[in-house]
Amino acid sequence: MTATTPAGPPSGPPPTAPAAGAAGAASTAGGDAGRRPPAGAGPAHTGSAATRVIGWLALASLALLVLYGLIISPADREMDDVVRLMYVHVPSATYLYLGCFLTTLASGMWLWKRTPGWDALAETGAEVALVFAFVTLLTGSLWGRPTWGTYWTWDARLTTTAVLTALLAGYLALRRLDVDPDARSTRAAVVGLLLVPNVVIVNRSVEWWRSLHQSATLARIDPTIEGDMLVALMVGFLALGLVFAWLTIHRFRVAWLEQQADRVDLDAALAARRAEAADGDPHEKVTPA
Amino acid sequence: MWRDATLVAGRDLRVEARSRVTVNQVAPFALLVLILFAFALDPEGPVLERATPGLYWVTVLFSALLAIARSAKLDEADGVRDALRLSALDPAGVFAGKALAVAAELVALELLLGAGVVVLYGADPAGVGLLVATCAAATAAVATAGTLYGALVSGLRVRETLLPLLLLPVLAPVLIGATRAFDAALGGVPADGWPWCGLLAAFAVLYSVAGALAYGTLLEGS
Known about the structure:
The complex is a heterodimer of chains A (289) and B (222).
Chain A: H1 16-22, H2 49-72, H3 86-113, H4 116-148, H5 156-175, H6 181-193, H7 195-213, H8 227-279, H9 283-286
Helix pairs in contact in A: 1-8, 2-8, 3-4, 3-6, 3-8, 4-5, 4-8, 5-6, 5-7
Chain B: H1 2-19, H2 21-40, H3 46-74, H4 80-86, H5 91-121, H6 128-153, H7 159-170, H8 172-186, H9 190-220
Helix pairs in contact in B: 1-5, 2-3, 2-5, 3-5, 3-6, 3-8, 5-6, 5-9, 6-7, 6-8, 6-9, 8-9
């Protein structure tokens, strides 16, 4: 599988290697398979020694989170055991916003530099952010039911997260379209660049809207949080941060390999057409002058 | 730039005057939605009266989606995009022109819907200054954001379904702001509505700038 084609002329590289890599097969041996010049050095499969370390660390810290979150840390005086959701909920919300910033930053950089890595990073950020958005909304609703007696309330932060999820879904829908990759990247980059400004506007307006009707529904997270609960929350940030990093790296590499696969297909098609033209194939007679 | 804008706006409005898609299809659709809301919410009860600002702006947004999709579609046929690229018109001017044309159609729709809610829902148009200012700011906001997102989905096979998905979450603050301002003008204290009007204006400015900057890239990259 280590088809090392000289990077450069579009000489129809074997289409199998990057496609297999794009499917997430980390078993592909090392080596750069059929890459075009702008690619430079880059991964040919999604796993590496570093990501394996991150993966094991993530698993270990998740186990630690289970230990601290469910066993060691005490139940809250008012919220009882439900407070344990916080150790997942608050970090996921944080990493949700981190993913969004990543997308906006990478979109801006792509519009500026036009190097494919930024494009792949923008897609990665949004997709990982959407995963954390679902985790945030799910744990938030489960937390809200026993605490406020309702799964959902029109609080500013909840509403912002809901609109943000819709914005991310729209962005990813645009990314999924089967059209010319460059045009798609440009359009997606404009949407991605506006992601964070939109979230800020939505957040401001929703906060303002709710504050006219009622005081804040949720008390802020108890600032006097301490002891084992604080440790559990920190472990939550660490564990989900490692998960975030692992997902981001792997998703980025998949996105990268998808770009390579697209190009390989395009090169193969171009080479085939050129070969036909050089042969003076019978189809030429059919095409009108 | 402004000369280019008037040229493009004139072209879009001329196409509209000849094809009459907004007049014959979008406007009746908007009125139909108002009637459907009355069916859904008891027209004799207090619900409809309280919900009037929200229903008005939801209807405007849905109708605006149709007008925006139509505006974006004008540039798809017959290689109009290529022609625009080659015409040496300022892309920011093209954007402004298209937004102006959409805004003109939206103002007509809003007047019609305004008459609709007065007649059908018995709304009492007090606080005219605030109503007019809100309409102006919200129209600018919807037209600029809509023209930008219309260009983003133009030429795609799935544009009809993708445009609402992309645009409606973005316009959520406009819906909130315009509804609150109308609430204040129709029933509450008009002074409460002016900050919302400011929010709408800020939104319109942001999207005017974003659209003017991005339109050239979008024209090229398609």
